[in-house]
Amino acid sequence: MTRLPDFRLEVHFSRWEFGARHHLTASDAQTMTMTELLALADDEDRHAWETLSLGYTQTYGDPGLRRAVAAAYDHVDEDDVICFAGAEEGLYLAMQVLLGPGDHAVVVTPAYQAAETVPLSLCEVTGVALDPARDWALDLDEVRAAIRPNTRLVAVNFPNNPTGKVIDAADFARLAELCDERGVRLFSDEVYRGLERDPARTLPQAADLSPKALSLNVTSKSLGLPGLRVGWIACRDRELRSRLERAKHYTTICNSAPSEVLARVAVKARDRILARNRAIIAANLPKFEAFFAAHAGLFEWRAPDGGCVAYPRYLGADGVEAFCADLLAEAGVLLLPASVYRSELTPLPDDRFRVGIGRRDPEPALDAITAYLKGRNTP
């Protein structure tokens, strides 16, 4: 395995996620119990669950799950889908298959760290940063200028983690066209799709826009079921899908049989689950709005366009790193400071922190921050 740097987010979570009194930076929507999920199963999937044999499964993924996933696309069928143990395995193996010495990739930042560090371990990479001064806008001219003759891949993530940015659908379509014109793969991380504040702003899926593009998704984020550890890539290039399958032989080989049946239930019920999770976010947003309005001298807040994370700005003189560390130590509230999202490719703001807005009952955490600020005599 190519040596990779520490995964800053996972190192941070490994130390603090399950020990902090208030986890206010969760990246997933509110989860559900096994009983709640199985209540959504149709007769076929309930029978499959109750009679499941705990043997090996197909490397490509359970056929029923792949059919259910494909049904969410316009131009994708079952044979265009390959399942993985979470989105991270899909991302890692796609980069390994698509990139090598002598190649070049373009990565839009900020991003989930693996989208940057895995390509950097394989080839030259150019970053294109979303512009915080223009509401995290993506400049397509910058992407165009970054593409070289040996560019193999452009990686994007919308709704974006951590900013919650959703670009215009027309710009996304132009990006796909640009990649096709240049013979470049568009790798689109779409794990927050379905949680847009305005459903009319939901982007088309990359695999529908281009036969060469890859759409990455997972049960963890929008559906709020990270414990299943099931993700997938949709791509209409069957030869590439075959290469991904052969790469998977060196990692998980196949997914967990129980997880794939449960994922099938969730994907089939995605409209109901997404509606539930959007309602939780809609109910939470006024609470966050009120909190940040009450402390306007210390924070700069903007609600995300989509997804269940936001990236406020901290204005305090102590700096966001010290603020997050002291808040965790004194009040038990876990946030992700900007250093977790720093990039080796582009300058990014160092005064931001990530909050999660997709889980129920954020009030105790917000109250704990308010009490902490009062204790500091901070307005």
UniProtKB/TrEMBL annotation:
Record InterPro entries: Aminotransferase_I/II_large (IPR004839), PyrdxlP-dep_Trfase (IPR015424), PyrdxlP-dep_Trfase_major (IPR015421), PyrdxlP-dep_Trfase_small (IPR015422)
Bilayer-spanning residue ranges: none
CDD domains membership: AAT_like (cd00609)
Aminotransferase class I/classII large domain mapped to chain residues: 53-357
Database matches in SUPFAM superfamilies: PLP-dependent transferases (SSF53383)
MF-aspect GO terms: pyridoxal phosphate binding; transaminase activity
Gene3D superfamilies: Aspartate Aminotransferase, domain 1, Type I PLP-dependent aspartate aminotransferase-like (Major domain)
Keywords, sorted A to Z: Aminotransferase, Transferase
Protein name: Aminotransferase
Lineage: Bacteria, Bacillati, Actinomycetota, Actinomycetes, Streptosporangiales
